[in-house]
Design goal:
14 strands
Length: 350
Amino acid sequence: MLHSGTMQITENPVAGYERVVVAEAPESGYHAIIAIHSTVRGPAGGGTRFWNYRTQEEALQDALRLARGMTYKNGLAELPLGGGKAVIIGDNTTKDRERIFRAHGRFINSLLGRFITGEDVGTSPADMEYVRQETVYVAGLHGRSGDPSPRTARGVFRAMQAAAKHRWGNDSLAGKTVSIQGCGHVGYFLAEELNRAGAKLIVSDVDKEKVDRVISAFGASSAASEKIFSVEADIFAPCALGGILNRQTIPQLKVEIVCGAANNQLFESSDGDLLEERGVLYAPDYAANAGGIIGGCCLELMSWDLQTTLKRIDAIYDTILRVFELARRDSIPAYAAADRLAEQLSSNPV
């Protein structure tokens, strides 16, 4: 155990991960886990999630799944980054954020550049400004790349166009009905992209104000949170938390395509097989939602210019088509094709 000021940092070795570390600073109300899955391609890039986990074990499992997903996401996008993730355990509505996020910055700094973070669920660019006071290994700052949500949404939109091209032979989304689960930052900007493209929207969120905002801005209709899986639409876009595609929800789907921004949408890998059996085309989440890290870490920390960054986000279209072609060629589900390709690319140093 390493003591950093009053912070206690403890190693928690996990097979298949380069490093898993737990930090606690009781006087700051800070308790966090950083999981580094791989640095083969470069420093492990991944956001910081702030969530009220029931137990540390639940937080650990989330961090591990998300870190591995970041390795695959960054590898598939051919970025000069490995994969990692940070989770902070606690109430993300707290007003006392400076102490927590400055402690988080010190924790990240102790890893000496092996992990670079940005915002995620429960965190914001303002939180990253506090992190920045303690470390340079942070992106998503005000006045620089800022909120990654518009770029994440753009990447998902391009993935959706690619899925439409594969399924219907035309990537136009005009007149298509898209059901969106989750109207937070990414969901809102995805609705904006889809509205501009002429799609019809059905939206849901546990927060009625967020639903009302999308309805007011884009003329969407709404569905109750528990009904969003069963509405009739062409495309379902999960943009909330993970694990929502499972043996209870998949049989309810009345869509031809699933393509959204949420991480870890499949509760289990076998749920990807179930989608395949039902004839639903699945755009693997980490392939579709890479726009945020491309427009955050790469824009700010890798010296990419804006034009290069936007081109790489739009190239998600080509990545998705590449995944579908591999799935067709090898007669495997799309999620398995994405994993195969991501494992190959993430094992190759830049």
